Amino acid sequence: MSALLERLRRLEKQRYAAFAALAILTVVSAFLSPYFLQPQNLLNILRQVSYTGLIALGMTFVIVSGGIDLSVGSMAAFVGSLAVLALNAVAGRGWSPGAAVAAAVACALAAGLACGLANGLLVTKGRIAPFIVTLGTMALFRSLSLYLGDAGEFRSEVERFGDLGSAAPAGLPLPALVLVGLAALLSLLFSRTRYGRAVRAVGSNARVARYSAIDVDATRLWAYALNGLMVGVSAVLIAMRFNSVGTSTQGLNYELDAIAAVIIGGTAMAGGRGTVWGTVVGAITLGIINNMLNMVGISTYLQGTVKGLVIIGAVFIQRQRQQ
Amino acid sequence: MGPAMEAPLVRVRSLRKEFGGHAVLRDLDAGVARGEILGLIGENGAGKSTLVKILAGIHRPTAGTVELDGKAVVFRSPTDARRAGVSLVPQEFNLAADLTVEENVFLGSELLTARHTLDTARMRARTAALLQELGASAAPGDRIDGLSAAQKQLVEVGKALAFDARLLILDEPTTMLTRREIDRLFAVMRALRDKGMTLIYVSHKLAEVKAVCDRVLVLKDGELVHQAAIAEIDPPEMARRMVGRELREIYPPKRPADGPVVLEVRDLASPGAFSGVSFTVRQGEILGLAGLVGAGRTEIAEALMGLRPSTGTVRLGGQVLRARTAAQAVRGGLSYLSEDRQGSGVLPGFSIAENVTLVSLPAYCGPLGLVDRAREAESARGWRERFHIKAPDLSAPLESLSGGNQQKVSLAKTLDPGPRLVIVDEPTRGVDVAAKQEIYRFLAELAEKGAALLLISSELEEIVGLCHRVVVMREGRVAGERSGAEVGEQPIMYLATGTEAEVSA
Do B325 and A207 touch (CB under 8 A)? Predict the structure, then answer.
């Protein structure tokens, strides 16, 4: 019985702190603005957080495995540009809009996966610190997309593509549905499979993992690959939303939002510990904070300040709890 | 109590320390006489480390007082304690690897010139004098990460002595040291005592306590259960006092091991570590791998496990095994308990059950890689029962267990894949006498049930007590092999050091 209580206490501390913070924030927001709880507003928040939320799902695996990926925002621009190019190329050959959309999605996923693998290979086979590798590819991916689009934007020539961007089956925005579905799948991968266990082991202590017959390099490589894949999903959804990709604007500062969501969700920056649902909660928390700042009329320029404080505060609280 | 106790340097009165309501020290009264080497012994959890940490200002007592020179003192930090002349050499090295010896010795208390810049000349000279006094071969300008374990240990001692220590506490200082290095350290300790310094020596190694200490305090469950002048107590008596009951024969009887050869190693070599290593291990046999630290023992284990590149032939059950990764070695039927539990053995943040299946996890997974957690928990329960692991909740993090129980989990992790050959590297490092005895019994049982064991240990007594045969390494080569009645501390030491002189020392 006392063992059960002990377990509940631990669970609450590790997993539900982020949920509790979100609940409090929701209540406070509801008091601050009567408009906050309107379904339309909530759906908007959900849509807004989905794009970075999807990337944050992949980022969770990277951070828990002991790494970091700063390149995700630039990668979203690069991958999105390629997707629209593929879309227009296929449509230009007189194929059906459905085929063109399928080509764009496939291109985004493949390109995202390839970019993620490139990051992962540089980290594992190249033995270069993840911070440096992804700082480099951050500059590289952005520059490539600017070059491709001459710093302008790629406009989609397929109306169906843009329609999907505002699609809302059963009243729920498409990206939010994708986010929830993939979060469920990745949560299963994270907490119930060998791979998930390996990711945590590698992040806790790579040497122990290696001595325990875990393939450390493969584990890390696939974390970056998965993250790239998630960037691909996110990038094509944003491209649909605007029916275009701005090479200088798409994905700007996404690395900040994604990393923030992971940290607010309770994942240890040092690796080894975290949850996928915590990250979803972290992303929504960030979205609500932004929403509230808008509603109470605080300058958009100050939103970065608040975000910065929240990230630092979340890590500070994590530290205190560890001691 | 001898006459020296009339004016003890340190006295603790009704000292009590609780962690989260759990009393680790219970109203302890004890004294340390001036100019003695006091042995402090007890099982894991008896309160030895807590006591010395209070003396060194790391912990603060819940109740009771510490008196130094007859005056009550309160140390708020290790710096406070150091100013009062109390220095602790911690169990684990606490040195900055990238800094030099001299920078480490004065770290945090650097000497300054009148213009508030670093007085490197004075620090260098002082460090050089300290190193000479300690007989260390390191120079003040050497970087720490280039030093051997023994040299690092001496730097730690030097660091403790840099500020006119009157009381020097050494917490398990010999764990990483070889016989020769231990003798060197003991000589240093005696020299310090003869110059009037007082020392407290915390150790699990009772023979060493007997060899170097003047008096012994035995703690059990946070209380002082016995104290004696060293002449009046021998190691078996110390062990009895520590566990509070008669210890049966600590080593289980050796069964004959005449099964077929399980492991055959031919001309194994790993550049920079060892070469020309050949040996065999039979079913049911415990083969010892002895030698000084640095002789290449652990490196052989790492090479067999695919954790270090090597050349040569390894046959397991007649089949050639070419392990390039640990996963291949495990699939082939090998398993390795690493010498460094924290650094490469287990994950303190993982649950006990997750640690048990760390190596064998593939066997608990379905085709999609989903972990069968019910089966995992069942297996962990099985090991808990078999090894008497004191853990009410197997989903609790491993760090909630004591060192001895963590070591048992580590052993369970090694055995869970069902290996045909088990390599155990320092299996009883840092565990108390009772847990040691249990671990010895498990290892003997394992051999009896048909596994082959390779035991690597720096404790010769352990090798002699358990092994059927011993391969002795010296400087990366096999120096010789001893079996049956020839398995004794003297012949092994002779092979390990290669000199007659060392044997008589």
Answer: no
